[in-house]
Each structure stands twice: as structure tokens, then as C-alpha cells.
Write a structure and sequence with these properties.
Main location: membrane
Subcellular location: Cell membrane
Protein name: Putative Major Facilitator Superfamily protein
Number of strands: 0
Transmembrane segments: 17-38, 44-61, 105-122, 143-163, 169-189, 219-243, 249-266, 278-296, 302-321, 333-358, 370-391
Order of helices and strands: HHHHHHHHHHHHHH
Keywords: Cell membrane, Membrane, Transmembrane, Transmembrane helix, Transport
Shape: globular
Radius of gyration: 21 Å
Strand content: under 5%
Length: 407
């Protein structure tokens, strides 16, 4: 009888610490300026909300669309050059926003920032996977998510503190965060050598799309991302209805703060006792249940209790989804698979933004305020069942996986 060697302890390497730090800087820089765009251009310069919304929507669409190809390109040349190039473009984009005074210049700067995000998004996930042993990936994704949530908490606080000084200053500080991230990753991240010089590209995306198991997984996850968007749409609208516009600060603070404090220990506990596939299904059910319970929340504290449950579910979903994506992807096509998986976020986020607001309006018209929450609960239930079906043949996390070489 052969006894399996004990698992090596997880001690983050310089490359992993660099990725964690860069993720904090990227999320912090993003949330230091993006929430202020509407405040500055609509309230400060009297632009229409529709024009600013159009610009921000096109930025999001550009980033999500290019993320698919950014991942595939990373399999050709390695993720590091694309991440660094994306940081440069995001720096220029945010600096351009800071100096924008016309619709055309703000649109150009926003699109440049979107292109930058499309270049570094999937390659960053591929780089995390490449520099982390398979048995440690869920923890590493959890740490990366925690650093991002910490950025989401500190970014708006920094932006709000800088707003009295001027939007231009806030934009330049946000741009500099990506410049610092570039330096950190240039110094710490190795250049991961592609397994095959012909890997990736459109062929890599085609392989991911033709992988029936992975395609099912990606398409079913659209349902989850439809739910996860509601913190910015239906949940925010209900919070404002219960407690006024000042409700957004405690709402987002609770959601991100819980992730910062609890995500890593919670993932350690889940990883020890619950298989990854089951953990993902249960987490989606938790998110769906939290949204369903919001139908009965008649006070702001009751809504915050539902948000806490919602946040516990979302903090489990991200690292388990990333770990399963890495497990399903061939080592030479990590970027392509992470890029293809962005389709679920792009489609789910877009549909969720439209559906959440439409359901709230429809519930008000029909005098049935529970309509959006019961509908979202049903979507979550169907998504959980779909994930159970889509993941039924996923290999165990203990299955042997080849290592990825790096220079």
C-alpha cells in the first residue's frame, strides 16, 4: 500500500505576494475614481446621467469583450507582458479621465481603460494559477479575492477624501495605483513560459468552446452572475428605499468588509470539509436564499442581515469557481479557459443589470414588491441545479496535474 506524501504547507512566494498586492492596488484604484465619475460629470458639470451611463457601459463592454481574447493571447506569449501592458493602458485611461472635459475625450479615456482591463483580467487569473500548486489554488484565489475586497473598501474612501481637492487629483491618484502595480509585478512576477508556442490564440478559445463540460459550466454560471450583479441594482434600490441615499455606504462596507475578515478562514473551513463542487452549489444556493429573504426585509437592519448571508455565499463562489476553471483547463490553455469563462460574467452582469431594475419597476407597477426577490430566488435555484448537473464529471482536486514551468 502506497501512502500519499503529506501536502506541502502554503507559504506565499514573492510572485504570489506580488499578485495579491497588485490586485489590491488595481481594485483600490478602480473604486477610487469610477464611483466619482457620475458625481463629477452629472452633479458637478451637469451632464445627463444617460450620457455618463453610456460611457461607463461601453467601458465595461469593451473590457469584458477583450478579456476573452486577452486570455487566449496570454497562452501564446505568457501572461506577464499582457498584464504589464494592461496596467499601462489603464494608467493612461484613468489619467485621461482626470483631464476630460468633453464627451469625446471621456469616452476615449474610458475605452482605453477598458482595453487595459481586457488585457490584464484573464492573464492575471492565469498567472495566479501558474505560480500556485494545484492543492493551494483555492486558498490563493481566496487571498486574491480578499485583497480585491480590501481595495473595494479603501478605494471609495480614498476617492471621497480626494473629491474636495478635485476630481482631477482623484483620477491621477487612481491612475498611479496601476503604475505602482506595474512596478510590483515587473519585479516579482516570473515570465511563465507557454507549454507550446502554438498554444492559445483563437485555437485556444475554440478548444475551450468545444469542451462540452467546460462550456456547460460557463453557461450555467451566467445565472450566478445575474444574481451577483444585484448588489449594485435591486439590493441598492431597496436599501435606498428603506434608509435613503446614505444607505449605500454601510451596504457596500458590510459586503466588502465581511469578505476581508472572513473569506480566508471560511475557505479554509470549507476546503477541509466540503468538496469544491458541492461548495460551489451550496454557495449559489446561499446567495439565492439571501435574495429571496429580501422580499420579507421591511427594515434596513433586516436587509443588512440578508446582505451578510449574500456576502458569505459570494465569498465562497469566486475562489471555488476559479479553482474549478483551473482544474478543467489544460495547462497550456489556462489563459484561454479563463478568458472564455469571462463570457459568464459579461452576459450575466449585463442581463442582471437590466433584469434587476426591470423587475423592481414591474413589482412596483403590479403592487407586488416581492416579485424581483422571488424571481431571483428561482433563478438561483435553477442555477444551483444546473451546476450540479454541469459538474457531475469534474475530476477530483486530488487528481494529479502537471506543473507549469516559469522562467
Amino acid at each position: 500500500m502506497t501512502v500519499a506524501p503529506p501536502a506541502m504547507p502554503f507559504r506565499p512566494s514573492g510572485a504570489q505576494l506580488g499578485l495579491i498586492a497588485a490586485n489590491f492596488l488595481m481594485w483600490g484604484g478602480f473604486f477610487a475614481v469610477i464611483p466619482l465619475v457620475t458625481v463629477h460629470f452629472v452633479e458637478g458639470l451637469a451632464w445627463t446621467a444617460a450620457s455618463v451611463g453610456l460611457i461607463l457601459g461601453l467601458r465595461q463592454l469593451t473590457q469584458q469583450g477583450l478579456t476573452v481574447f486577452g486570455g487566449a493571447w496570454a497562452d501564446r506569449i505568457g501572461p506577464k507582458p499582457l498584464i504589464l501592458a494592461g496596467c499601462v493602458l489603464r494608467t493612461l485611461g484613468f489619467a485621461g479621465m482626470a483631464y476630460s472635459e468633453t464627451f469625446a475625450t471621456l469616452l476615449l479615456a474610458a475605452l482605453l481603460a477598458g482595453v487595459g482591463g481586457g488585457l490584464f483580467d484573464a492573464p492575471k487569473n492565469a498567472a495566479i494559477t501558474a505560480v500556485t500548486r494545484p492543492e493551494h489554488r483555492t486558498r490563493m484565489y481566496s487571498l486574491a479575492s480578499m485583497s480585491g475586497n480590501l481595495g473595494m473598501v479603501s478605494g471609495p474612501l480614498l476617492g471621497a477624501a480626494l473629491l474636495p481637492v478635485g476630481f482631477r487629483t482623484a483620477g491621477l491618484v487612481a491612475a498611479s495605483a496601476y503604475l505602482v502595480a506595474l512596478v510590483v509585478l515587473a519585479l516579482t512576477l516570473p515570465h511563465v513560459r507557454p507549454e507550446s508556442p502554438r498554444a492559445g490564440g483563437l485555437g485556444g478559445l475554440a478548444t475551450a468552446a468545444q469542451d462540452v463540460r467546460f462550456r456547460r459550466f460557463t453557461l450555467v454560471l451566467i445565472g450566478y452572475f445575474l444574481l451577483s450583479t444585484q448588489i449594485n441594482v435591486a439590493v441598492t434600490l431597496k436599501a435606498i428605499a428603506l434608509a435613503g441615499t446614505t444607505a449605500t455606504a454601510p451596504l457596500y462596507g458590510l459586503s466588502a468588509g465581511l469578505s476581508v475578515v472572513l473569506q480566508y478562514p471560511l475557505l479554509r473551513l470549507v476546503e477541509r470539509y466540503v468538496p469544491t463542487r458541492i461548495a460551489l452549489v451550496l454557495a449559489v444556493l446561499m446567495v439565492a436564499t439571501a435574495l429571496g429573504l429580501m422580499a420579507f426585509a421591511q427594515t434596513f437592519p433586516a436587509l443588512l442581515a440578508c446582505v451578510a448571508l449574500y456576502s458569505l455565499g459570494t465569498m465562497i463562489v469566486y475562489p471555488t469557481q476559479q479553482a474549478l476553471t483551473a482544474r478543467l483547463a489544460p495547462p497550456e490553455l489556462l489563459g484561454s479557459y479563463f478568458g472564455f469563462s469571462a463570457i459568464s460574467l459579461g452576459v450575466g452582469g449585463a442581463v442582471g443589470s437590466l433584469l434587476g431594475g426591470a423587475l423592481v419597476d414591474m413589482g412596483a407597477r403590479l403592487s407586488f414588491p416581492a416579485l424581483p426577490w422571488l424571481t431571483l430566488f428561482a433563478v438561483g435555484l435553477l442555477t444551483a441545479l444546473g451546476l450540479k448537473w454541469a459538474l457531475r464529471e469534474v475530476p477530483s482536486r486530488h487528481a494529479p496535474q502537471p506543473e507549469v514551468s516559469a522562467l
